[in-house]
Amino acid sequence: MSKTSIISIVAVLLIIGLISSSLYLIDERQVGIKLQFGEIVETDIQPGIHFKLPFVQNIRKFDARILTLDSRPERFLTVGKKFVIVDSFIKWKIEDVKAYYKATAGNRWQATTLLSNSTNKGLRDEFAARSLTEVVSGERDQLMAVITEKLNEQTLSEFGIRVLDVRVKGIDLPEDLSKNVYRRMSTEREREARETRSQGKELAEGIRADADRQQTVIEANAYKEAEQIRGEGDAVAAGTYADAFNKDPEFYAFTRSLRAYTDTFAGKDDVLLLKPDSDFFKYMKQTTSSAVTPKQ
User: Fold this and answer.
1) Does 221 fall in a domain?
2) What is the pTM (predicted TM-score) of this model?
3) 37, 40, 55, 224: which is deepest, by most CB within 10 A?
C-alpha cells in the first residue's frame, strides 16, 4: 500500500471521528444541556440529532421522565406533642434543566438528597400545625396538597424540579406510644362492653318483668273467663235440672232418696242408727206403687 493511500485512509478516519464527535442524540425521554469549557451555552435542546463543537463542547443528558423518590420513614411531632413515624414518597421531574444542573451539578443523588430534605421540612412544619387525628384521617388529602404546593415554590426556583405529588404511605406511632394507645383503646372497649352488658341486663330484666306481668294478667283473665263460663254452665245445668224436676217433685225426691240409700249402704260394715219413724226411711215404709209412680 502506497503512502498516499495510507494518508487517505487516515484522513477519512479522522473525518469520520470528527463527524461522530460532532453529532449527539437527545431522545424524547431525556433533557440535556450543552457545556463549553464548563459553562452552560445551551439548555433548551429539543429531541433529535444535533451538532456540537468537538473537543470544545460536551453534552450532559438527564432523565426527563416522572421519577419517584421513596423517602425513608421519618419521625415528626404533631401539635398535641405526639410523635408519629411517617413513610412517604414523592413524584417529581426536571422542569428547568439549567437550574437543576446548577443546584446539583447533574448529580441525581444530590438532587434526591435536596428534595428529600425539603420534603421532610415541609412535612415537619405541616404536622406540627395539626393534631394526630387530622394527619391520620381528617385532613390528609388537604395536607398533601398544601405540602406539594409549598414544595414547588421552593424546588422550582432553587433546584429546577417540579414536585408533582407527595403521598404518605403510612403513619405509625412509636412503639412505646403504640402500646399506650393500645392499652387505652383496650380499656375503653372494656368500659363500653361493661356498659353494653349492663344495659342488656337492664333491658332483659324489664322484658322478663313485663312478660311475668303479662303472664299474670293472662292467667287472671283466663281464670276469670273460665269461672264465668263455669258459672254460666252451672246456672244452665241448675235451670235444666229445676225444669226437669219441677215436672214431678215427688219423683225427684224419690230418686234422691235412692241415691242416698245407695251412698249410705255402700259398704258391708256400715252401721247407721236412726229412729224407725225418721224421714230417711220414708219411701221404705211406703209399699204402694202409687207412692213412687211418676206423673204422666
Assistant:
1) no
2) 0.53
3) 40
Cβ atoms within 10 Å of 135's Cβ, excluding its own: 23
In a domain, 188, yes or no: no
45-68 pLDDT per residue, tens? 888 887 787 778 788 888 888 888
**Residue 281 DSSP SS3:** helix
Going by C-alpha positions, the residue among 255, 267, 263, 240 that lies closest to residue 292 is 255
Span 236-277, pLDDT tens digits: 888 887 787 777 777 777 777 777 767 666 666 666 666 666
Phi, psi of 159 (to 5 degrees): -115, -10
Range of the domain at 123: 67-173
Count of Cβ atoms closer than 10 Å to residue 167 Cβ: 14
Stretches where the chain sits below pLDDT 50 are 288-292, 294-296
CB 40 within 8 A of CB 60: no
User: What is the count of structural domains for the chain?
Assistant: 3
Please tell me what DSSP assigns to residue 8.
H
The cell numbers describing 178, all together, are 403504640
